[in-house]
Amino acid sequence: xxxxxxxxxxxxxxxxxxxxxxxxxxxxxxxxxxxxxxxxxxxxxxxxxxxxxxxxxxxxxxxxxxxxxxxxxxxxxxxxxxxxxxxxxxxxxxxxxxxxxxxxxxxxxxxxxxxxxxxxxxxxxxxxxxxxxxxxxxxxxxxxxxxxxxxxxxxxxxxxxxxxxxxxxxxxxxxxxxxxxxxxxxxxxxxxxxxxxxxxxxxxxxxxxxxxxxxxxxxxxxxxxxxxxxxxxxxxxxxxxxxxxxxxxxxxxxxxxxxxxxxxxxxxxxxxxxxxxxxxxxxxxxxxxxxxxxxxxxxxxxxxxxxxxxxxxxxxxxxxxxxxxxxxxxxxxxxxxxxxxxxxx
Length: 345
What we know:
By secondary structure, the protein is α/β, with parallel strands linked by helices. The chain folds into two domains: 6-75 and 306-338; 86-296, von Willebrand factor, type A domain (Rossmann fold).
């Protein structure tokens, strides 16, 4: 007969959690004794049992949270884990044209980027990720990190540039910043491959010709193209909920943005990576297969899964703590009623 042992995976060092738990219990005992003796006018005005009960509940809430911090659980099932010794740089176009509604029907190009970036991150779990965006300037939104949750938060909040502030963008506007980041990563971890996933529509609205991108330190990746030849309209948040960007040539017509695949293929050639047109109808697996050269390895393995129990403890603490604000409000009201009318503090 096989038994499943309970295991702990504390989020803080054991000594800190032990001290916090003992402190909470000691403080509660002191509070109960103080209330039992009826110290202070407010305590005498109420039955000590109510104070004792409230103090004990607070203690239980704290202890539940501390035990939840120990992350109790037991082994159960299998979890698929991928270990990738890679640095992955996502370079995302956030110019106004990425708001065009021609991705997978009526979705925006940015929505397609967000979906694909997280698919890549899921397939290459364990790698380090960095997010660089560009419109009329390039910005590092997230430095290299293995925190997939941080990447998800960063990519989920991306919005195309407001057309009111758009000054024209070059399709290789992030080239110099990417080059610097790639060089720094190579210096810090020599021999660690770096993959670049460039996501954009290839539409160059800068007055200057795009500068070539440097693919010297790029081991693999892909250029991901979004949009259609027919193009799509772009919502203008500065107008109203249903307003679209207007064509600058006049006439009151909605502006149409189209994909420039020739430009995107040129960028792919400069980075020495394949080009993939993303329409929302194909899985990311095919694109990833082409994106990884033979020298880049990602190993997948089944590792023991774990059934977490901390959320049950946290939920119990939350339910017990719900009456606390009402209790405090009643205490304040009682204090106000017992305070002399002429009292000024």
